[in-house]
Design a protein that fits this description.
With 86 residues, the protein is of the alpha+beta class. The protein is built from 1 helix and 4 strands, in the order E-E-E-H-E. It has one helix spanning 47-61; strands at residues 10-12, 20-25, 36-38, 64-69. Strands 1-2-4-3 form a 4-stranded mixed β-sheet, with helices on one face.
Length: 86
């Protein structure tokens, strides 16, 4: 298990949106056979742990793995919801 706060390899900035930390597993070379795998975390926001799980698989195949880490309060899923039913 990975402990301590995650430290993203890169931070993605777009327009006025909140920055998104991105953990990466990169092969030594990118070829026409290289695939991009995007792994999304759940409510635990443990993108770094997901990367650790996927890294051996990606390394054996020469693929890129990208694990973005969306901070709490920056996504639509964190917005309050209302119910139409009463």
């Amino acid at each position: 298990m990975i402990t301590g706060p995650p430290v993203p390899a890169r931070t993605f900035h777009a327009g006025g949106a909140p920055p998104v930390g991105v953990f990466l597993a990169l092969p030594d070379a990118v070829t026409a056979r290289t695939r991009l795998i995007v792994v999304m975390h759940g409510v635990l926001r443990n993108a770094e742990e997901y990367l650790a799980d996927w890294r051996p698989w990606a390394a054996a195949r020469g693929h890129v793995v990208v694990c973005p880490c969306f901070e709490h309060g920056t996504g639509r899923a964190d917005a309050p919801t209302t119910s139409a039913a009463s």
